[in-house]
Amino acid sequence: MKFATKAIHAGIEPDPSTGAIMTPIYQTSTYVQESPGKHKGYEYARSSNPTRTALQTALAALENGNHGLCYASGLAATDAVLKLFKPGDEIIAPSDIYGGTYRMMKRIFEPLGLNFRFIDIEETDRIDELISGNTKLVWLETPTNPLLKIIDIEHITRICKQRNVLTCVDNTFASPYLQNPLDVGADIVMHSVTKYLGGHSDTVMGALIVNNDDLAARLKFIQNATGAVPGPQDCFLVLRGLKTLHIRMQRHCENAQQVAAWLAAHTKVGSVYYPGLPDHPGHELAAKQMRGFGGVVSFELKDDRYERAVRTMENLQIFALGESLGGVESLCTHPASMSHAGMPREERLKIGLKDTLIRLSVGIEDIEDLIADLDQAIGTD
Ligand code: PLP
Hints:
The chain is an alpha/beta fold. The protein has two domains: 3-242, Aspartate Aminotransferase, domain 2; 245-379, Alpha-Beta Complex (Aspartate Aminotransferase, domain 1). It has helices spanning 3-9, 50-62, 74-82, 99-109, 127-130, 153-162, 175-178, 213-226, 232-242, 245-264, 283-289, 306-315, 345-350, 367-378, and strands at residues 67-71, 90-94, 115-119, 135-141, 166-170, 188-192, 206-210, 269-273, 296-301, 320-321, 331-333, 358-361. The strands form two sheets. A seven-stranded mixed sheet has the order 1-7-6-5-4-2-3, with helices on both faces. It has a five-stranded mixed sheet with strand order 8-9-12-11-10, with helices on one face. Strand 5, helix 7 and strand 6 form a beta-alpha-beta unit. Helix 2 packs parallel to helix 9 (232-242), helix 3 (74-82) crosses helix 4 (99-109) and helix 12 packs antiparallel against helix 14 (367-378). The model has no long low-confidence stretch (mean pLDDT 96). Bound molecules: pyridoxal-5'-phosphate. The site of pyridoxal-5'-phosphate (PLP) has 16 residues, from helix 3 and helix 4.
């Protein structure tokens, strides 16, 4: 099945009791058993719920995986991955990752005995030398949040496989519409479903997708044993959101490309970070690895005073100032105080994330209105 057909049909069966075409919201905590242990496949809703099952199946299909698991948030999904490891195990991750992932690694799992090695994106080229006898996982995020750097997934997974090291790719920024890491050898795909998969800024959720039955069983055990599962109402909302993922992503990409080109040509704008721009350092790799360049564009003004960046963000009318990305409506985020507040300032500066960086999640509104909004917000002074 092609992507658009899967987005609408994968995981969805007419409801067995009524024939309802839309998966019902099974708002129940438990299921009646005929006799102890004799049931219809569902025992208790932390372990499984039919609305969640439909969504997990749909997400697995979109990522070309065999098993999907949903969690109460993207970070809960990341937490489940990190719980696969034990004290002394080493995990390598680029330092340019979502601030909350970095915070969880440093402040929750490092004190519990896992060792993290944060590397520069450029160092991922020589991952072979960096892997040690204790390395158990390489964590990747590409494009990265918020600087939109691109990492070669295939190169890393090939080496990790030879060295018996797992790879997990946070595929939130690309969505399965633009890239499928499992197809090029990744072991785990992680999503903040909150973003493009949900698509409507109304749900917080995470997901993991894998192909390996043993890994799926271990993750399923953690999901049930620690209990960070999403409720059925949220699963229903995401199932509905998925049906338009392909057309939303097409428009996100088209609009973001135009916004990036417009910003790059603006006399008041300094650096523009968007892999769809030909002079972006990851452009060629992104063109090879992805089926489009995504909907997030970051930029700095030439005037590098903090107040100037703040004024621009305050001036925006259509781009709402707030955390998150991936919804149909355009959002503007200030990474230093929002998405990456969990990362110490010196670490942020080390990876090139300035206090004046502005990140746009370009929505699917009319492009002329979006550009007019940026134009008036950046102004002429
Ligand atoms: N990964 C990325 C790339 C993100 O941008 C985010 C949230 O912004 C997360 C993970 C965490 O997801 P959640 O907010 O759903 O917990």
